[in-house]
Write a structure and sequence with these properties.
By secondary structure, the chain is of the alpha/beta class. It has one domain: Trna Endonuclease, Chain: A, domain 1 (3-Layer(aba) Sandwich). The protein is built from four helices and nine strands, in the order E-H-E-E-E-E-E-H-E-E-H-E-H. The protein has a six-stranded mixed β-sheet with strand order 2-5-6-7-9-8. The longest helix is centred in the middle third of the chain and has 19 residues.
């Protein structure tokens, strides 16, 4: 029987948090197969489509009320003083948004000290995929306070072209993101 892997989210206040230079030694190396392999390729293709400013597969360590924790983000992209964390899924899953809002956004904002926003990137959408759903990186970044889903096909990398995003792109405010998180928690 295969045991489901649980998702660790932040619990209580962060006592410390830091970026690691490499994967922790105690985490085993595994060979991805099947759907997992497709998902990893999709994530890598998305990072490559963003270009050299994208940071792919960065490891973090933190301590909260549950003790030490480690995690690896899919893609981090800094633009106009804000940080965008992309959680890539070949097929949409609710876990992606929960992971962004309950772990990556508060953790990375704590470490980098910059406004941080989450965007789910999916190739395949489902009936359960919530809005907003967008088709361009620019639209995803404009709506980042709502944790949008970017529907991106890795066979059409021109859909993600950071060169089209000028320095005047305004990222959402912390206040708008905070009110959105309150709405999400109340649902």
């Amino acid at each position: 029987m295969v045991r489901a892997k649980s998702m660790r989210l932040l619990s209580g206040a962060l006592n410390f948090a830091r970026e690691l230079s490499a994967k922790p030694d105690f985490i085993p190396v595994s060979r991805a197969r099947g759907a997992k392999r497709e998902g990893i390729k999709y994530e890598r293709d998305f990072a490559n489509a963003l270009g050299s400013r994208a940071r792919h597969g960065i490891w973090f360590q933190w301590r909260d009320s549950r003790g030490l924790g480690w995690c690896q983000t899919d893609v981090i992209y800094e633009h106009s003083g804000a940080v965008y964390v992309f959680e890539c899924k070949y097929t949409w899953t609710a876990d992606a948004r929960r992971k962004l809002e309950g772990l990556y956004i508060p953790l990375i904002e704590s470490i980098l000290g910059k406004p941080t926003f989450g965007i789910v990137v999916c190739r395949k959408l489902t009936r359960e995929t919530p809005g907003p759903i967008v088709g361009t990186l620019e639209d995803a970044m404009r709506l980042a306070d709502k944790c949008p889903t970017l529907h991106w096909d890795s066979n059409a990398p021109a859909l993600v072209n950071p060169a089209n995003i000028g320095p005047t792109l305004r990222h959402p405010t912390r206040a708008s993101r905070a009110s959105n998180l309150i709405e999400v928690q109340m649902q």
